[in-house]
Every structure is written in structure tokens, then in C-alpha cells.
Specification:
Alpha-Beta Plaits; 5 strands; 2 helices; alpha+beta
Length: about 120
């Protein structure tokens, strides 16, 4: 076993936008895992809710009203490199995510990584 520190990134994407976000992430060429590429996980649809506040510019919903919709948890890991992480988020994930302020969790994890 070879445990390597990597970044685990999790976000939630409305179903109609999932393929667009995944395609952008694939184009980053950062989804490598050993002898594989384009490695990511997404779950069955769940439920997301939010209420846009004054000053927001919501893609969906109205200011002051709670919006509830279907979304998918999207998860992947990348090499633990701050520059690559910032590039992936700013050039690939955030520009294709439909929300003004998408929830993105980044944690450092140890993964069994062969290469």
C-alpha cells in the first residue's frame, strides 16, 4: 500500500448541468489516478435547497424565496498541488458550474495510489 496525500474535491451540480461540468473537468486532464484517467464519482440525484438573498444574481429561483431542486454530488481527487487546484477550480469547474456561488469542498486525504 502506498498512501499519498491528494486533494478530494466535492461539489453539487443540478442534473441538467452535470455533463457540461464533467466534460470541463475531463478537459483539465487532472483526473488521473494511477493507470486511469477521467476518474470521478457522481451519485444518484438528491435534493438541494437555497434562498437567494438581496444582492444575489441567482441562475434559478427568486430573491427571498426558497428554491428546492434535484442535484448530484460530484467528487474527484487530484494531485496535492495548490497551483493545480486553483487552476482546476478557476479555469474548469467554476466557469461551467451554473450557480453564482457553488458549494465546493476541498479536503486533504490519503489515498492508496500506485503511481
Amino acid at each position: 500500500m502506498n498512501l499519498v496525500e491528494r486533494y478530494r474535491v466535492v461539489t453539487f451540480v443540478p442534473e441538467p448541468h452535470l455533463e457540461k461540468v464533467i466534460e470541463a473537468l475531463r478537459n483539465s486532464q487532472m483526473l488521473g489516478y494511477g493507470n486511469y484517467t477521467d476518474v470521478l464519482w457522481f451519485s444518484a440525484p438528491g435534493t438541494e435547497q437555497f434562498k437567494p438573498l438581496e444582492g444575489s444574481n441567482p441562475t434559478q429561483g427568486e430573491t427571498g424565496k426558497t428554491e428546492i431542486l434535484s442535484s448530484v454530488r460530484l467528487e474527484f481527487s487530484i494531485e496535492r498541488d495548490d497551483g493545480k487546484l486553483k487552476n482546476l477550480l478557476n479555469e474548469y469547474l467554476l466557469p461551467t458550474h451554473p450557480w453564482e456561488e457553488p458549494v465546493v469542498y476541498v479536503t486533504t486525504v490519503k489515498e492508496n495510489f500506485q503511481k
